[in-house]
Amino acid sequence: MKNCMVAQSGGPTSVINSSVAGVVGENNKIKYYDNVYGGINGIEGILQERIINLSKLTDKDLELLKYTPAAGLGSCRYKMDDFNKNEEEYLKFFQILDMLDVQTFFYIGGNDSMDTVSKLSEYASLKGIDKQIIGIPKTIDNDLLHTDHTPGYGSAAKYIATTTLETYLDSRIYPNNGVFILETMGRDTGWLAASAALAKLNGESVVDFIYLPEKEFIEEKFLSEVSDVFQKKNRAYIVVSEGVKDESGETLFIRDSDSKTHDGFSHAQLGGVGKYIEKVIKDNKIAPKTRVLELSVAQRSAMHLASMTDIEEAYLVGKQAMKYSAQGHTGFMVGMKRLGNNPYEIETYRVEASKVANNIKYFPKEWIALEGNNITDEAIEYMAPLIIGEPTLPIEEGLPKYIDLNKENLI
Amino acid sequence: MKNCMVAQSGGPTSVINSSVAGVVGENNKIKYYDNVYGGINGIEGILQERIINLSKLTDKDLELLKYTPAAGLGSCRYKMDDFNKNEEEYLKFFQILDMLDVQTFFYIGGNDSMDTVSKLSEYASLKGIDKQIIGIPKTIDNDLLHTDHTPGYGSAAKYIATTTLETYLDSRIYPNNGVFILETMGRDTGWLAASAALAKLNGESVVDFIYLPEKEFIEEKFLSEVSDVFQKKNRAYIVVSEGVKDESGETLFIRDSDSKTHDGFSHAQLGGVGKYIEKVIKDNKIAPKTRVLELSVAQRSAMHLASMTDIEEAYLVGKQAMKYSAQGHTGFMVGMKRLGNNPYEIETYRVEASKVANNIKYFPKEWIALEGNNITDEAIEYMAPLIIGEPTLPIEEGLPKYIDLNKENLI
After folding, report:
1. What domains sit in chain B, N to C, each tagged with a CATH number?
2. pTM above the 0.95 mark?
3. Do B298 and A162 touch (CB under 8 A)?
């Protein structure tokens, strides 16, 4: 008996389950493992022995899973201790793998998860444990090093660009319009905010300004440029990343000034950077009307608007992880290399997980427009192929039909 | 020479242009009028003689218009004076109609616009002016009397239900989840918030609570019921209408306590009812984690997720308005009557605009669940057919292709 296990970690994406489907689907073909187990809630649940058997899924269920958003296995935000300081979890983890005859562990996640992959494989290697630990990339943030882009990003970008286009049309209908502010995710990097530039009408980008965390936000400059555009056009469309920081490196948000308690129950953050920027515009009387749209988790769960390119690539990295595992490799993440844009083509390769772990791929400085408030054509060229293609989702009573994995049916 | 004119008013919907396409498309068939003109920015722009010729649109453009969200002709929020007090605008309006040989004016809008239709037709009748004034219903709010439902509502409902389903999946991925709060539009009525109940997984509604403006919001009761569900499920999904009011009839939102000026520049409203409810949950330590998603204008402009039923009905009311006009009728709005649910079928009829004007159709009390925090199966039965069907939008570079009417090319 030789089995494997797959689990999901960190913030989900629209296509994170497509990678699980890729792992299971490929094994159904090559029959390398007897069973593909699924760990519930990542490492955290696995350590509690919460594990199901994904090989029992029918082909139809697997197809549904490929097109179901959000971590179907559940996720966690769990950082493993350094094994030199605390070996306990490592012992327990490999004990569980042994118990279940699991040869290979696939972990789908971002840079934190690649830290887990790196630590587990290093531990196994040090202790002479013959197990394989393999990372599968996932994050809407697109901030992983050593991969052209990350599965999850293209779908979030397509959601952001579509919503930008549609709300732009809405934002300019009155004789007197205002300033529209779209807030995207992206705590450290501007990849998500940048994708709004893909929204075009008559070949022109509809967005006036994009503010990224990679460029410090100078309020005075901001007010002056927004005021200029508003005077000229009687409207302005601004996109801002949640991670935008001021000159002192502080993230911009509106605090609840009443909250003084420190009891573990954090008090409401009244507004993020979008609301902050709205307040600045109002306070400085730049425009009489403003509107903020904070996309929040919709941008990472909107499978109905996912990129087919992204879905297929998320499936591919799962499938390739399975293939690489059958070749005996360990301690790596599946990376994607872009072979070209015309036609757009990628191939996968293996990159040491330790090189990806705890690192951040920032939006390139040279892709930020000279004025610091938009992006270059080169950046658009990079993003454009990632949002191509629309899935045909199964529909039931007018809504997408998604699968709900039975997480209680433990093995 | 006999022409007609169509214009749009009030908040837009995903399908408000489908009704324009219906008016123009039907006239292209029956050739009743020589030209269909389009008034820019509703009555406000027409009074400034900002008018274009929609009969110049190609069939392809018209097809694009049918599938383009947000008021393509521009909109306004303009209330006409009583003509007994101020006749000037009325004289000007009918002068412009005369000048352009316009026999019939179609106004696409909600209850305020039906007030305009009612006033203009009453004025024409009193003065013996032989012109026809016809209202075409439109509002995501679904709050017009004398029509089973309004074009625009089904698409907003489909957007809300889909987003509810997708963000619900996202909201339950961690071992420790929180309270998710979805804020919909609906200042006076709960129709939009109610539509979240359509989101189902395994046949069960995913939403725990829905709070409507029609039912007073009692904080203590709210905290107790949310706390109960959170204790039981380790999560809760709440939907709340922006118009929810407390026992004294006050809308719930977080004010900017710093704003004291009264200079026409309104200060930032830091948070709507969603943020308010989040604060109440935090302050009362009901759950350690919360997340608010305010759908804002995305719910009224997301053509990519429109209901095909809604698109066709929006087209139909435009088409029927044209037919009724050829029969010589005036002073009415096109209403929809539901003939049945199995199969779902509607027919149109004429209802006096004055009966619709300035009235509000509230969410029926008997469709609110006994506990006051959800809706009944009967309400779901009413909404269900309205979200059926998906349009196949033309796609360009991964995004929907929308038409941008040339509003500068005035006649």
Report:
1. 3-140+147-152+303-358+388-400 (3.40.50.450), 153-299 (3.40.50.460)
2. yes
3. no
